[in-house]
Write a structure and sequence with these properties.
Order of helices and strands: HEEEEHEEEHEHEEHEEEEHHHEEHHEEH
Number of strands: 18
Distance between the termini: 118 Å
Keywords: Cytoplasm, Initiation factor, Protein biosynthesis, RNA-binding
Number of helices: 11
Pfam families: eIF-3_zeta
Family: Belongs to the eIF-3 subunit D family.
GO molecular function: mRNA cap binding; translation initiation factor activity
Protein name: Eukaryotic translation initiation factor 3 subunit D
């Protein structure tokens, strides 16, 4: 028996190129581009001589059968850009949005001037003249993607919290991924001194629920948020060389939780000799509280002053709520504890009573080597004491606005209907939408050594009215447990502080600004002139005087 081998018919391309031959291609496929390759394709054979059909038409039929039997076709993973079939239903048509997206620029937040923040009534539409532009805009770069209806939603571009001058020199750009890898273990702090007056917490507020709600009162109490360099106590400690770094808990907490930030913020660093001071700008981001900063579809700002659900209006409303709630929960009959008088209060200037606030100046050792001295003194704040006078607590408030407005984050649970039965779900939603804010509150409570955080749930009496509010619940948290639940790492926070401090202490004396990029997860360090912000204030004062004269 003689065996012979007959070479099967080879389907060659007469054009001399890869892909199907134009001469043998059926007429209905001639105008469709050939897409032969996709990175996700699995090419298992260079050439397949097995059962090649006699003609191209039969070959396509055979390939179609193989695909139906489970074999992956070459080029099958290619996109659906050619998925339109003319003689079938238009559902097979795939629309690709290639047009340029419009940018919606977020304006500056609503500002409220004055060093002493009071629990005055909310004033909408008032924009102050703080140096720089607002940082309470909506989330940039579009945030997380929404549903199928969001394909043509314009991306948001947020403004920087401070105007970047062309003469500012960029020294360093650090991505959040690098910050998240830093760690430093810090031992318990040393108490330096305590000032201010603190009163007891009224435990009756712990019994408030949705069936036993209580209106939020407007209380005129003076509460200070003085910057580091303007603090007379810190000035005395700096003169004595008590530490190398000086800060306040509000500034330090933002730096320690920087990777959670979405909105822009800025910290002024001033290097004086061998000392470093962390400061804030007057009426800057540190004087106001954000709302749903981390939500997938956060609130945006608006030029419409009547829009009570814009980012700026909600920020001012949240600040107003927190100031009044922390004053309302104080038990009037409790004994006031005053270690030393409030260093910022002047009876000649202020007429309203002081809010219950204890300022504790604490020293943290950030040294790495055993023979190294690297101390940080921070001014921390507690709002009240609970039972015993040495059991300090902080008081904060979460606020619910119109759930149907933008920034309401989908379909949140109605607090009045669900807070008593589904408090865990509501807390989880707040932790997601306000991750940066709640992380800062937890860090501030830990820095002062508070035993508990009292968290109030406050909603509008009417969703269309931002002036009247109702307390529908109060919950207690241990700061360390709360931080652990949110995956807030204190060692990572201290690592960020030490790294930034080392970077600044290597620079010559002068003024520097650390800015959270408004549209990217990174921070930028700038070298700025010593009068960078003073000049802006002078121009502002001159402009105001000219307006007054006219």
């Amino acid at each position: 028996m003689t065996l012979s081998f007959t070479l099967p018919q080879i389907q060659g391309n007469a054009d001399g190129s890869w892909g199907p031959s134009t001469s043998t291609l059926p007429a209905q496929f001639k105008d469709i581009p050939y897409a032969p390759f996709s990175k996700s394709d699995k090419v298992t054979r260079i050439a397949d001589w097995h059962d090649l059909p006699a003609d191209a038409t039969a070959g396509r039929q055979r390939q179609g059968q193989a695909r139906r039997q489970g074999r992956e076709a070459y080029g099958a993973a290619e996109g659906t850009v050619f998925g339109f079939v003319h003689d079938e239903d238009e559902k097979s048509f795939s629309l690709v949005d290639s047009g340029a997206r419009a940018n919606t620029r977020v304006k500056a937040p609503i500002r409220a001037g004055g060093r002493a923040i009071r629990g005055a009534a909310l004033t909408r539409g008032t924009r102050g003249r703080g140096a720089g532009r607002g940082g309470f805009g909506g989330r940039g770069r579009g945030g997380a993607r929404g549903g199928y209806g969001d394909w043509n939603k314009p991306q948001r571009t947020r403004d920087s919290s401070v105007t970047i001058s062309p003469d500012w020199q960029v020294l360093e750009e650090v991505d959040f991924t690098r910050l998240a890898k830093l760690n430093l273990s810090v031992s318990d702090p040393e108490d330096i001194a305590s000032y201010g007056t603190v009163q007891g917490y009224d435990r009756a507020f712990d019994r408030i629920n949705t069936r036993n709600e209580k209106p939020l009162e407007i209380l005129d109490r003076v509460r200070y948020n003085t910057s580091t360099s303007d603090d007379p106590v810190i000035a005395q400690l700096a003169e004595k060389k008590a530490a190398r770094i000086f800060a306040t808990d509000s500034i330090l907490s933002v730096l320690m939780t920087a990777p959670r930030s979405v909105n822009s913020w800025d910290i002024i660093f001033e290097r004086k000799g061998d000392e470093l001071f962390l400061d804030k700008r007057e009426s800057g981001p540190f004087d106001y509280i954000t709302v749903n900063e981390n939500a997938s579809d956060p609130p945006v700002d608006s030029d419409d002053q009547s829009n009570i659900n814009s980012a700026g209006s909600l920020s001012l409303e949240a600040t107003y709520i927190n100031q009044n709630f922390s004053s309302q929960v104080i038990q009037a009959s409790s004994k006031a504890v005053t270690p030393k008088p409030n260093p910022f209060y002047s009876a000649d200037v202020e007429t309203e009573p002081l809010a219950s606030t204890l300022y504790k100046y604490r020293k943290f050792d950030l040294s790495i080597e055993e023979d190294e001295t690297f101390d940080l003194i921070v001014r921390t704040e507690a709002d009240a004491y609970l039972g015993k006078k040495d059991t300090l607590i902080t008081v904060k408030a979460l606020n619910e606005f119109d759930p149907r407005a933008q920034g309401g984050s989908g379909k949140p649970l109605d607090w009045r209907k669900n807070l008593d039965t589904q408090k865990g779900a509501i807390v989880a939603n707040e932790m997601k939408n306000n991750s940066a804010k709640l992380a800062r509150w937890a860090v501030q409570s830990i820095l002062v050594g508070a035993e508990y955080m009292k968290m109030g749930y406050i909603t509008r009496a009417n969703s269309k009215d931002a002036q009247r509010h109702t307390i529908v619940g109060v919950q207690s948290f241990k700061p360390t447990d709360f931080a652990r639940q949110m995956n807030v790492s204190l060692t990572n926070g201290w690592g960020i502080v030490r790294t930034i401090a080392d970077l600044l202490l290597k620079q010559p004396e002068g003024k520097y600004v650390l800015v959270k990029d408004p549209n990217s997860p990174q921070i930028k360090l700038y070298k700025v002139p010593d009068d960078a912000f003073d000049a802006g204030l002078e121009e502002e004062t001159i402009g105001e005087s000219q307006i007054d004269e006219e």
